[in-house]
Amino acid sequence: MLELIASPINFFLVLSLFMLGAIGSLWYRKNDSIANYWSNFFAIAGSVWGIIFAIALFVVGRDLSFSFHLFPVSFFSLAFNIDLLAGFFIFTISLITLFCSLYGLGYVKHFYKKYNIGSLGFFYNLFIASLLLVVTAADGIFFIIAWEIMSISSFLLVIYEHRNTKTIQAGFLYLVMTFVGTTFITLAFLLLYKYTGSFNFGLLKSHIASVPLFIKNIVFILFVIGFGAKSGIIPLHIWLPEAHPAAPSHVSGVMSGVMIKTGVYMMLRLFLDILQPIPLWWGIVILLIGLISSLLGVLYAIAEHDIKRLLAYHSIENIGIILLGLGSALTFYALGMPALGLLGLIAALFHTLNHAVFKSLLFLSAGSVINQMHTRNMEEYGGLIRYMPQTALFFLVGSKAISALPPLNGFFSEWLTFQGLFQGIAQLHGFTQWVFILAAGSLAFTGGLALACFVKAFGTIFLARPRSQEVFHAKESDLPMHVGMGMLALTSILLGVFSGSVTRVLEKVGRDIGIFHDTLSFVSTSSYRGIHAGTDFSFVSAPLIFMLLTGIILVVIFVVYFLINKNQKIRQSETWNCGTSLNQRMEITATGFARSIIVIFRRVLKPSIQQRIEYHDADSRYLLKSESITMVMSDVYNKYFYQPLSATVVWASSQLKKTQGGNINVYISYIFIALIVALFLVL
Amino acid sequence: MLRLFLKIAKTSPMTLPVEDKELTQVNVAVVGKKIESKIRRLFHGSLAIRHIDAGSDNACEQELVALSNSFYDIERFGIHFVASPRHADMLLVTGPVTRNMAEAVKQAYEATPDPKIVVAVGDDALDGGIFKDSYAVVGGVSAVIPVHYHIPGDPPTPKIILYHLLKILEDMDNKVS
Amino acid sequence: MTILLWTIQLLFVPTVSPLCFGVIKKIKAHMQNRIGASIFQPYQDIWKLLHKDEVISKDASWIFRYAPVIVFSVTVAVGASIPILSFFHNPFGDVLVIVYMLSLGTFFLALAGMDTGNVFGDLGSSREMTIAALAEGGFIFSLLTVGIISNSTNLFAIASGDIFAHSQSIVSLLLAFGGFFIVLLAETSRFPFDNPATHLELTMIHEAMILEYSGKKLALMEWAASNKLLIFITLAINLFLPFGIVQSASLLALGVHSAIFFAQVFVFCLVIAVLESTMAKFRFFRLPDLLVVSFILNVIAIILSIH
User: Fold this and answer.
1) How far is CA A513 from CA A266, A345, A518, A519, in A?
2) How many beta carbons lie within 10 A of that of residue A672, not counting itself?
3) Is the Cβ pair C111, A456 closer than 8 Å?
4) For residue B96, is the peptide bond before it cis, meaning its omega torsion is within 30 degrees of 0?
5) Does residue B157 lie in a domain region?
6) B83/C211 CB distance under 8 A
7) Do B44 and C41 meet the contact criterion of CB atoms below 8 Å apart?
8) CB C123 to CB A527 under 8 A?
9) Can you give the pTM of this predicted structure?
């Protein structure tokens, strides 16, 4: 039975469900609610079938490899390779899509009569289908086609609310960055084609020896820039904080949870599978990129007061953590320690899944809040826990997961990443050991700063008193949105408590990659459903921690509230403010909360304070009417990198313009010169 | 630094001892309503005092500050001063309660959890003292919040405040048994 | 026997911790030439607070009501996971689990400080999260140093192993202990990070977050703070200065071990009290420098311990 499910037919069934959803949504575009229900229903059906397909694939343990030669050209075929790694990513994509589509059933209702729902459904389903194609493509050209479909459909989704000029600007920046990335990727594939004669991944892998090391290094740099631009590593991240907030929230959830992981997937596929054997410095470069991205990502997140930009910067931080796991895997394998390499790979895969789950949960709950408040500025929220209690609870679970607090899932993937880095510190020497120490230090500080950032986010949004009148009109979201968010929160908890089983599954997935077929495992999962690392180096057991914490909480509640002083009376009163009356301006703002950290890291963040003062009488300037103080972070990447770069490109183009004077005699002389040069080259 | 430590070690504490015969000479003015028995037994081990300055001329404050120094040492009886009225059992109010502070004193009283005691320290706090009938004062703490005990003096010396506090605790304990 | 061991492990930290606070206050009183309160005064304070009524702000939500329970339970759970009687195999005692469970407590404490909208609570939460974020690096790395020396990150394996076996690890142990001591002062809100006895709200960090609490919740919060102090002191003693660790379960050995342990706890309380009586609290923006110094000490310790 499972053999039947894990077959190519079913993969195409999944794809066709999404395509049916896309086409039907466009067909019914005149009727908003039918388009909404049709597109999301087929997205849900497709993702459910995708999950079943991935699970069957895993249980059967077979790789599916098939291709279609539709065109008479030899170098291009529609080749698919669905091994366990691709199956894992199919599972992640389908899981996130399932919950985001459930959420979308309720969320899209806010766009009725304002924008075209049919096109939203069409591009959404097309986007998901292209994501599935990206992770299963096994041919360079086919991959780039799927990649382009993914980029364009996500671009059209980002600019969905097209009447807002800022959205269009954000979408345009996203488009430019993604095409720059695609250029680098295409260049790298072309270089590989020149030396191996094929675009097919399988053939590339078997002929990799014919590529000289110098070319391989160039190809590595090109791929890192190309896929890094999609994943959002620093300094190629400038599109992420603009594009993710601009898109509709259920699309932001899919983009941030899954789309940026496709960059990571291809890095895994290329560096661990196709391009092996690789030199040591590749792993070290990935580690350095990971540690810089995670630390800078979380620092920029702390300085933000736009809720979706804050979450986007946290995506950058978590991609950094995933790259730490990948980098340690590459380093260990290149140094001849495959067991530790497998550990790094498991950590990276686990964090990919975890981040997808809790980041989409956070984006969905932020989307609910923004829908009610009509602004993304956190400084106008406050006290929403009284008006949107369930959304607050889901956001709390997401915050706890992203801050790596036990017993939720974020803690266990960071634990595994730490174990890999600890082993590196203990067993390596010289420069490599220093990189691992810096990486572990960066991960430690990132965890603490992420915790601070989410205390700020949750506190300013949901706690204390409202900071604006809009809060009083906020209402709780409707049932589909609750179901989507609630299921994600439940998944987060389950992935945490059953992390031992998840590690075992991921180990099997990791082993499916060629280089790790015969390695002994560094992690084992045995007693108490826990995870052992090494022979007694460390051990953690998720169910035990969960039971210990809940047990103690229950005992404390029973003893303190039911045994001691049962007749205690609780009176309600005003918040104490040293005898004065409180008003809403006395509450802390998001910027004020983060001010200490911003000042401590001022060399990195470069804050500047702008003051605007209005007087009652502009001449005498004695009585103040209003004063506003804004703390602004300067954007170093734009100022020192992208703007000089674009200025240089514009300058170079204007220099080149001089060759096109419009004089036809000059053009004829160009043709003549080109002819002479070509003759010389041939002879 | 080492010489400082040696000097501290060599000096014996000069804390004022509490003698029983002096206690009976002092009158405790009981003003206000009765308190249930449970509180008295409750407070004997640990008492948290929150001081409120209701427009006082700082004479009583200086004497209260002296209570925490090494000569009078109120901490040895388990009594300590706290910053927030939510942590307090006893409110110590000084000053004639100026009009500007009336609301603040009321809010502090509301913020203190039951069971609580209110003690008015100084002659000003009783009925205005030397500021009695002024346009700027409300006229004693009892005009704003219910007062249970009063310590007379302008200002009362720390020794008198200390003995009065002990008498209050004994008084509460006596009313229990 | 296992049940007895587990009961001691669970109840030791909550039962003994108020005594630490009492001893520190008594020593500080003697340094000020006073007699001071008795060393059992914190027990009386907690008992009185548990029997008082409460006043809760109208703006408070369920986080304010349940945070004290969560914070206290986290400290009890961490207390059950650290080596006190170290010959006992315990599946909870992993370095990262301890660090992040304490972060769970800090998370809810900071949220509770912000929940009522009390101005000083917000201020305290902001400062507490800054300090906690920067102290985590030093905390993880100091425990990692002893973990690498003992080749295990399980605290019980570290405590029952023989740390002083290699002579070259003494220097790295001392450096790591210095780093850990700075983190101890930071996480338990002692000088020079925070003054636990201050009445000036603008200088408070930990006290500011519990200004709105009263009655039972305040008792749990105060108790959790003293639990945290005892947890850190116990970690410092059993991981960095494991004199007199017993390997067997005989009664005499247990007695000797307990006596040495309590003597070491007293020495720590003495050092903390003397520090609080002789130095001033640092300006807030000097504290990150101190925490980064702790991190660097630990990095040097790790490098030295491997070579």
Assistant:
1) 13, 10, 10, 11
2) 10
3) no
4) no
5) yes
6) yes
7) no
8) no
9) 0.93
Domain boundaries, chain C: 2-306
Distance, in Å, from the CA atom of C100 to the CA atom of C272, rounded to the nearest integer, reads 25
Q: Cβ(C302)–Cβ(A434) under 8 Å? A: no
What is the count of structural domains for chain B? Answer: 1
C212: chain B residues, CB-CB within 8 Å: 84, 86
| Residue B6 forms part of a structural domain | no
User: What integer pLDDT is reported at residue C167 of this predicted model?
Assistant: 67
User: Is the alpha carbon torsion for A524, A525, A531, A532 positive or negative?
Assistant: negative
Which residue from B1, B70, B81 is facing C34, i.e. has the nearest CB?
Answer: B70
- Non-local (6+) Cβ contacts of B45 within 8 A are B78, C44, C47, C48
pLDDT at A478: 87
pLDDT of A392 > 80? The answer is yes
Decide: residue A304, CB within 10 A, 0-12 exposed, 13-18 middle, 19+ buried. Answer: buried
Tokens of A155: 């671009």
Instruction: Give tens-digit pLDDT for A62-117.
Output: 788 888 777 677 667 788 888 899 999 999 999 999 999 999 999 998 888 888 88
3-state secondary structure of B167: helix
3-class secondary structure, C141? helix
Cα torsion A36, A39, A41, A43: sign = negative
In a domain, B13, yes or no: no
Under 8 Å CB pairs connecting chains A and C tally to 242
Q: What is the CATH number of the domain that holds B151?
A: 3.40.50.12280
Tokens 């809060």 — which residue?
Answer: A471
pLDDT at C164 over 80: no
Of C59, C123, C135, the CB nearest to A464: C59
In a 3-state reduction of DSSP, which class is residue C114? helix
Contact (CB, 8 A) for A402 and A373: no
Nearest to A121 by CA among A172, A10, A46: A46
Query: pLDDT for B26-85, tens place per residue?
Result: 554 443 223 333 344 556 578 899 999 998 989 999 999 998 888 888 888 788 899 999
Between CA C7 and CA B162 the distance in angstroms is 44
Half-sphere CA count of C205, side-chain side, radius 13 A: 26
- Chains touching C (at least 3 CB pairs under 8 A) are A, B
β-bridge mates for residue B49, sequence order: B81, B90
pLDDT value for C86: 60
Interface-testing mutation among B52, B107, B110, with chain A (most A C-beta atoms within 10 A): B107
Banded model confidence at residue A631, pLDDT cuts 50, 70, 90: confident
Domain that holds residue B84: 28-176
DSSP state of B70: T
Residue A55: which residues within 8 A CB-CB, separation 6 or more?
A91
Residues in chain B: 177
For residue A453, the Cα-to-chain-centroid distance in whole angstroms is 18
* Residues A182-205: tens digit of each pLDDT: 999 999 999 999 988 888 888 888
Residue B24 has pLDDT above 60, yes or no: no
Contact between C48 and B84 using a beta-carbon 8 Å cutoff: no
Tens digits of residue pLDDT in B104-120: 999 999 999 988 889 99
